[in-house]
Amino acid sequence: MAQQLVVKKDDDLDEEEYYSPFLGIEKGAVLQEARVFHDPQLDARRCCQVITKLLYLLNQGDTFTKVEATEVFFATTKLFQSKDAGLRRMVYLMIKELSPSADEVIIVTSSLMKDMNSKTDMYRANAIRVLCRIIDSTLLTQIERYLKQAIVDKNPVVASAALVSGIYLLQTSPEVVKRWSNEVQEAVQSRAALVQFHALALLHQIRKNDRLAVSKLVTSLTRGSVRSPLAQCLLIRYTSQVIRESGVNQGGDRPFFDFLESCLRNKAEMVILEAARAITELNGVTSRELTPAITVLQLFLSSSKPVLRFAAVRTLNKVASTHPLAVTNCNIDMESLISDQNRSIATLAITTLLKTGNESSVDRLMKQMTNFMSDIADEFKIVVVEAIRSLCLKFPLKYRSLMNFLSNILREEGGFEYKKAIVDSIIILIRDIPDAKESGLFHLCEFIEDCEFTYLSTQILHFLGNEGPKTSDPSKYIRYIYNRVILENATVRASAVSTLAKFGALIDSLKPRIFVLLRRCLFDGDDEVRDRATLYLKLLGGEATVGETEKDVNEFLFGSLDVPLVNLETSHGIMNLRMYLLIFHLFQGNKIPTLLRKKSTGKKSAGPASAVSGPVSTVDASYEKLLSSIPEFADFGKLFKSSAPVELTEAETEYSVNVVKHIFDGHIVLQYNCTNTIPEQLLEQVVVFVDASEADEFLEVASKPLESLPYDSPGQTFVAFEKPEGVIATGKFSNILKFIVKEVDPSTGEAEDDGVEDEYQLEDLEIVSADYMLKVEYLTSEMPGKAWIRRGTDVVPSNSRSHTCLLSGVFIGNVKVLVRLSFGISAPKEVAMKLAVRSDDPEISDKIHEIVANG
User: Fold this and answer.
1) Do 528 and 418 belong to one domain?
2) What is the pLDDT of residues 190-226, one digit of tens each?
3) 797 and 744 in one domain?
4) Which ranges carry the Coatomer gamma subunit appendage Ig-like subdomain domain (predicted)?
5) Which residues, including other chains, have CB under 8 Å from residue 536's CB and lie 6 or more apart?
């Protein structure tokens, strides 16, 4: 269904509205109407109406199937038999929009070439435009002669059409178009304004990759041969480009600057504005060079034409950011624009005044803006708020009047982005101007009393929790915070609970009152609020700890996330992409969370049988010693890698089993660490039966059972598999724990003589590609290029849109590997990745690329 278009009539016609004539048209119905193209007696007006509807559908995003497009195209070609000029123009448009295939182009080429040589100039111009849009390079050579003649045609419409077509063809057939330089050079001297404009654009496109040629072009044309205002604007832009590339000569002057300055005295207003803008945008422009441009722009500020006033004040607004003193002379003229009927002009004027004003003019500007803010849209208000923030940072002593102004507009009606800009400005002023902290926090507290935006309420509460305890009287903020617990939604209530906890952690005198308020939160209807209240009561009361010192508690309450929140959101959006999971598992580059890392470093490892958490970066000597002492595994060679233990049972089950994967060049040994958690049982002849039906490349060659497994005494049983050397063999293994269970007398501790065979189903185990890569901290070997250091690159900087991670490892066979991963955010929920692998063995690099590509 086509989109509904509503067109308003003039205001003096009672504000009536009428609907578009295309309202409700459907593609199927229009295609049926297109059958009129086949009528023996063509109705030109009817055909024009149908083509108009087809063009409307195409421009609204409707797509035609291959069959539909072909049928419409062939039907349209039949309309060439009509002599109606209006219908012929519609036919040209239709053919250009349909973009026929190479096979179909041949059908219409003869008709278009006939029109291109017609005596009717309108036919010639349009035929050239359409033909150049649909033909390929092969057909282009056949009509090149006609196009070169058209460029120097006496009729400006034909010449302009040929030049515009040349600009388009330059993208697809540059070599052909470059042969037209002589004709285009002649067209630059044309007296027709549009021809001169298009000829200059095409000539620059032909020469743009040759800096010397562009410089010669500018030199020849700045002598006064260009008369068209549009062409002069183009020439000014090309001149600015040459000036930027040339820099300043030895005498301190810029080449061609005199030309830009002379354009300020041109009769055409567009040329004057373009020259002034070009001068103001020059690199390292001086006040002397700016003066003539500023003078001209100041004259335009009082023009009767709104477009000139807007262009002038917008250019001055940009200049004020870098050269505020140069714009000061225009302040009186810009103050009169604050009341301009065009709100865009008024907004630019006020923001420019805020950039150029001095400390004494701040109060006067604030009075003028009071009524001004209510008359403009939110998008303009945001620009004003950002300018006020910059002014306040420039003149810190004026923070009272500027802060009061921000607080007043914060209470007025407005959208989320507008309110957020004000809140962000107040927060920045509080951080950068210490004297503004008390008043700023008070204004924010008043705002959250009647704030309709959850995001802003939680942002202010978080900021209040960090800055409020540092003020002279922190207790006055408690009322505002607790009001949020009573009156707001669950998200804001949870944030308020965290803020209360921060006050209690930093101010001992307030802790009893905070306890009372947090206990009331224990009866909240939301789980998150209750959980936070419970946690903070335990922490502040000393019943639970998150570290060894008070500093750890404060870090837990006030510290930021180790990973930026934006990165977490992005990761959540791509978590289903196995590629990224495989890469990080391949190199085992995950960081241990802070709390787990502190706990694990406080305990001594219990040896190979203990369930050590975290990845093993190097070969454990205790594992190597244990395996070499077992005769069945003695001839397997040197141990390459031992993985971290993989749990095969739940935490609270009867038997606890985890497995360590030991990787050799031609074998894999699975070490099952077993623990009996039932005091009344003794397990004997403990063995793990491994089903390798889903791991075709592995062959079981040895098994070592565990003779006895008493209560709470860890033991190991082993199963070894042979695999092809040099092959990344992967697969899934099913595991069943089999044993003989004997009852144990609790009083004597002796087991019965007879036992019962039993078995216990374990979780499946997978051998993955990551098992063949050993992570190392850094490589300094004889590899070509510099040594790559992985340390530190696994942390993405805050607010970063791209990051490069350097990884190093050793692939099985002692092949050293370096990987560079470059990530970049290409869309709100999309991440692009570039992978580069370097190793001693190119085949290994190819294998790692295959692993990533296959997911």
Assistant:
1) no
2) 889 999 999 999 999 999 888 888 888 888 888 877 8
3) no
4) 622-767
5) 497, 498, 500, 501, 504, 518
